Amino acid sequence: MSFAIEVPGEANPLSLPELGKALHAATSLDNAQRQSAGKQLQAWESHQDYYPALQTAFLAKDLPREIRFLAIILLKNGIDRYWRPNARNSIKPAERHLIRSRLLHGSMDEEDRSFALHNALVVAKIVRIDYPDQWPEAMSTIVEAIRSTRNVNQVHLGGALLVLLRVVKELATARLRRSQVALQKVTPELVQLLGEIYTERTAYWLEFLIKGRGDEDDADLSMQSSLTVLKILRRLVTVGYEHPHNDEMVQGFWSLSQSQFGQFLDFVGNESRIPAPYQDIVGKHLIQFTKLHIEMCESHPASFPVLPNSIKLVADYWGLVKRFSEDFEKSTGIKQTTGDGPEAKAKFEGPLHERIALKGLLLLRVCVRIAFQPVSTIMYRSQETKNLEKAAVQTIKTDLFTKDFLSDIVQVIISKLFVFRQSDFEAWEEDPEEWENLERTEGNAWEWAVRPCAERLLIDLLTHYKELTKPLVDFSTLAVKIGVDVVMKEAAYTALGCAAANMHEDFDFDRLLTSVLVKDMEIQDPMAKLLRRRVAILVSQWIPIKVSEASRPTVYEIFRHLLNKNDERNDEVVRITAARQLKWIAEDFGFQPEAFLPFAADTFNLLIGLLQEVSVDETKLAILETVRIIVTRLETHVSQFGDAIMATLPNLWESAGSEEYMMKQSILAITSALVMAMRVESQRYQSFMVPLLMEAMNPESALHLHLIEESVELWKSIQLQSVPPLSAELVQLVELALPLLEYETEVANSCLEIVKNYIILAPEAMLSDGRRQAIMVALMRTLDSRSRGQVQLGTKSIELLLQVAQELGGQDGVSVLVQDMLQLGLLAKIMEGLHSAWEASQSTGPNRKTRRINSLTETDYFALLARIALAGPNVFATMLASFSPGGNDFGPAWAWLSTEWFASFDAMAELERQKLSCLALTRLCELPNPMQDLVLGKLQDLLSMWTMIVSELTVGAEDSGRDNLVWTELASSEYDTPLDVREREFAAKDPVHTVVTFDFVMEHVRDLVQRSGGEAVFEANWAVNVDKEVLAGFQKLSQAGGAGHG
After folding, report:
1. CA-CA distance, 290 to 569, in Å (whole number)?
2. If you ran DSSP here, which 8-state letter would residue 700 be given?
3. Which residues of the chain have pLDDT under 70?
4. β-strand 335-338 against 346-349: which pairing, if any?
5. Is 997 in contact with 916 (CB distance < 8 Å)?
6. What secondary structure letter does DSSP report for 374?
7. What angle do CA 507, 512, 515 make, to 5 degrees?
8. Angstrom distance (rounded) from CA 420 to CA 440
9. pTM surpassing 0.85?
10. Residue 1004 host element (H or E)
């Protein structure tokens, strides 16, 4: 390929030699070269032939390995970003065609397994996007490659199978129905072809292993190919069929999997004469079989029992588990390790028979779910399918879970699989903190370890078979016998914890707690730590089920004892487990702060001390969560421990460093809980809290986005519990909230609420010359939000600014704020929006004008204008005149504005807003001419409004002289925060809640009549233009109100 394309900026022309140089420089040890090459490669991303050139570099086997590796990585990343046609700078069709034409060569002709895999990932990503629409021949091309190499070149066959494996995995996990249907369409052909290849390859290497016939290298390749085929078939038969039990090929493969499973097991036994390397790959075949059986059971619960010998298969698995249980104590256990290679996942290594036993337990758990927790779906299912599902449930309940079978499972689990092994102790001692983290009860250890999985299976069975609790009760009596081995007692406690929810009526746990578990804490056996860890877990399992109030102090004493570092039997695992489980003790509904108080000080100190010892982040977070729960549950009682907690948190914050955001999230959450628990008393810690908030809310901080939610929550908590006046440092924080009003909706809403709270708590500071306009600009932007809640809160905040301006500065204060609103363009924005709404209402037909604002926003705008008019009619008139050409004629603006204002009452859902506008428009009646005559020109609208609003406000009252929105007394609650009180006191001063509308209206009507020249002139010049019905309605209202006052 020969090309040279000029690219803008400092980039060099794109050509194969230049690309090679850039790739070489990008792998250099010199940081400057790497950065320069990185910019060069990034500059080429959007240019023609860049990605085909990367593919060319990858396919060039004469290039250094690191260059080829970087080329395929960049190609893979580019597929993610630019392959889709609708992507910006998407790869051109001709380039896509060229890349597709060479894809298979990158895996089939590649001897490096890692490179072949990376290339297969590229193929899979492209197929997922293009197949079947843009690349309909994709699957047929891969199938043909497999057919052509099947009996010719085993290396090429392995590469083609690797590609197919990645493609099937990609399509099998696709969410688009198109991809699922496309895979199902080709599944029968693939299953038939792969089934033949699997039979051929396994026959070859079986002949080699059993009889020694054939070539060793070919046998190795055959084993690799059969393993890859098995991985593909496993996915195809579980994903590629709606009803796999109806397909003969699936039935045949299912039967083959069972027969070969037994055959292969003989190859990996202790007495097997097959060399270890071959045993390893045979073991991988066995694990694939176990995955097939479990996935079929999970994916097709209705088909599973109908497939050949499935019930017997599950029983056989249990037989393997039972045999393994005899050697369970001697087994070295399964260990979790980090995988390697692309898309690496956690790997689990351990004895093969233990891993197979684990799969057997997992399969049993899935069978329990089929029988008792059928998956609900909204998808259509035929009656035949429903009947099949019911039959599957019945088959498993009656044919599999027989009484003897269930009893055998329970007996083996509690007597064999619950035993703590020597390998468990070794793992415990090797890395205590990491072991505890992996083994924690709420973790996912059951997915990869036998003992936790056996616990989950026992819980599953006990939940649905209550009669199984009887042998457990008998077994648990061992726990109270003197002289029982510690390991056996720990196993009994494990069973007792699993059965808590089902045997609480038949077992006196309180007696065990006070007479046995307390004494267990005194055992000084070297194995005592094992028992102590289990006691912490056991108590946390029973606490929400059945522990009396009288026994709870004993529980708190046990946990205080377990957290004590000075007791040498309380090693790190014991103390971390106790700290973790204490969360459930504190969260329980029956937790009483008063009962815990005698233990609280020691518990807090021990938890904080442990926190400073541990190193695993997840462990730190768990301990901090326990502290947070206790702080929350102690409520105001936590005040006496506040000093100790707050003395620790800033140091923890500093020690967390600049990248440990999860730790800082927890610290912020605890601080927030402490504030809410201590209420007003927490104000004394604001000098510690404000610096944390300043750091977390700093937009230039690397952790800003990670901490923003917890920071905002703490900030709101501080405001809730603050009694004015606020400290200067806390007030200054408002400047950090303003930019956040432009963030995503949830954060913006919270920050908007924070700004609103500042207006209530520190009005003078918010109206100061240094902040007032910045706050108004930020609030102005919220009015354009697509979130209705944000617009409402923004409007309310501006209303509050106008109210506090009036309260602090009277009409002059409102005038200053209105001038800001004019200068910043807010009032122009409001008037333009309202004018567009009026124009739209005045036009009809195809040329009708479109309004810029919806009716809800319109009512928001009128609420702001109403606040101005209610606070200062003269200020409103001056503002209105400013929108005329000369700046002194408010007639034209009033004409359309008043028409739209009166019309908007129907859209005002809140009675408070209707009254606000009514009071504001009524106050305009105070203005002299020329405004007086303009207002009287709208007399019919005014009378209709007065009649409607007064009637609404007096619903249920005896006369019109009452007003349902006028507050006569302020309600209060013991749960009120200082902010609640301040808000309510402020709202109580609002004319909406102090002014009786009828009296206010009648007073202004009388004044207006008088200023118009008296009743005769008023009736002759103005009332004569009002509809009789409107006039009669208002007169009736006024007479009723007058009678009421009389």
Report:
1. 41
2. T
3. 1-11, 338-346, 375-381, 441-442, 478-483, 658-659, 744, 886-887, 956-961, 1040-1046
4. antiparallel
5. no
6. P
7. 150
8. 15
9. no
10. helix 997-1011
